[in-house]
């Protein structure tokens, strides 16, 4: 994540630090994706009803979760643009994470529904008309590829989760088309529920990853790709820092990492000396992908727990 080394450290204490990681989220693209996906849903539901294809209907279920996903992502991107205020001092970034979490859970529920329906179909296979399957799935495939590939380079987890939906959808539509070909050739409709099970598992896999990642962020866990011990060691390398404790690492939203800690400095230092140390620390941490840093400086006599978390090497100071 540390992709901005041109940061100016020339002036006092720079509170603009975290903005290094602000992704210019594609609100317009999301809106376009939302409208297009709505169109796919209509086409696939009509196609699914006409062709009696569970694979198409489960794909439509997949698309419905996409609409939720994209709608929520779009809403969250709009929210994230709102400035922070006295009630929400971190701004509204977390709304995107909440959106992604709700997405993930809905997706898992839809998966269960598809599996249940498919189970019924295995017992009593229904005849499926494949022409409708081609047309509807073809529309879905093309639009999703266009949308997903158009946004695949975005960093925002919220946008990533939406793109994952789109590409998953494209894969599912492609599967439905292949299924249609097999049904045409073999005249056997059992392919349909088999396909819908595959689509369901595809949905569940993506959903589980989203749920896991968002839960870590909401639980204030150490951000993905950041090594706690490495951060602590880096701070200890700063000249004149005797010790560090009470270290907290978390993400405000994906890609916006924050940290707070207490550092022990030599008691005879002037404020100006300690400013130089703060700047040195901030500079090192930016390179590790942490943009928002809050540091409490203390002297050796300051009473505190002797640990980084509550599990670290004790440092005994001899006065």
Summarize the structure in words.
- This protein has helices spanning 27-51, 54-80, 94-123, 130-150, 157-186, 191-218, 228-237, 271-287; strands at 241-253, 256-265, 292-298.
- The chain has two domains: 17-218, Up-down Bundle (Alpha-lytic protease prodomain-like), CATH 1.20.1510; 228-298, 2-Layer Sandwich (Alpha-Beta Plaits), CATH 3.30.70.
- Mean pLDDT is 76; it is low at 1-24 and 311-319.
- It contains eight helices and three strands.
- Helix content is 59%, strand content 9%.
- α2 (54-80) runs antiparallel to α5 (157-186), α2 packs parallel to α6 (191-218) and α5 runs antiparallel to α6.
- It is mainly alpha-helical and 319 residues long.
Helix content: 55-70%
Q: How many β-strand stretches?
A: 3
How far is it from the N-terminal to the C-terminal residue, by CA?
A: 41 Å
Query: Would you identify the regions where 5 or more consecutive residues have pLDDT less than 50?
Result: 1-24, 311-319
Number of helices: 8
* SS class: mainly alpha
- As for the CATH topology of the largest domain, it is Alpha-lytic protease prodomain-like
- State the shape: elongated
CATH superfamily of the largest domain: Cation efflux protein transmembrane domain
Mean of residue pLDDT values = 76
- Kindly provide the radius of gyration, computed on alpha-carbon positions and rounded to a whole number of angstroms: 26 Å
């Amino acid at each position: 994540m540390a992709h901005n080394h041109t940061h100016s450290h020339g002036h006092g204490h720079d509170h603009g630090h975290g903005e290094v990681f602000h992704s210019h989220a594609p609100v317009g693209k999301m809106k376009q994706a939302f409208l297009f996906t709505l169109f796919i849903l209509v086409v696939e539901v009509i196609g699914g009803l006409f062709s009696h294809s569970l694979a198409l209907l489960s794909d439509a279920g997949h698309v419905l979760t996409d609409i939720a996903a994209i709608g929520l992502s779009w809403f969250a991107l709009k929210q994230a643009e709102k400035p922070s205020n006295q009630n929400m001092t971190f701004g509204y970034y977390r709304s995107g994470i909440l959106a992604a979490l709700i997405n993930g859970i809905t997706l898992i529920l839809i998966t269960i529904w598809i599996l249940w329906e498919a189970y019924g179909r295995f017992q009593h296979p229904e005849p499926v008309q494949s022409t409708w399957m081609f047309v509807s799935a073809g529309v879905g495939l093309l639009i999703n590829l266009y949308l997903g590939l158009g946004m695949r380079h975005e960093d925002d987890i919220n946008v990533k989760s939406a793109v994952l939906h789109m590409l998953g959808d494209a894969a599912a539509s492609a599967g439905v088309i292949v299924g249609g070909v097999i049904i045409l050739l073999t005249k056997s409709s059992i392919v349909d529920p088999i396909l819908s099970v595959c689509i369901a598992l595809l949905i569940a896999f993506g959903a589980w990853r989203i749920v896991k990642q968002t839960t870590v962020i909401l639980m204030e866990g150490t951000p993905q790709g950041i090594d706690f011990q490495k951060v602590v060691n880096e701070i200890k390398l700063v000249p004149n820092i005797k010790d560090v404790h009470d270290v907290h690492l978390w993400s405000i939203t994906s890609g916006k990492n924050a940290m707070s800690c207490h550092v022990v400095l030599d008691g005879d230092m002037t404020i100006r000396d300690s400013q130089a140390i703060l700047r040195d620390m901030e500079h090192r941490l930016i390179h590790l992908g942490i943009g928002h840093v809050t540091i409490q400086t203390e002297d050796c006599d300051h009473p505190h727990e002797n640990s980084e978390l509550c599990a670290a090497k004790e440092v005994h100071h001899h006065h």
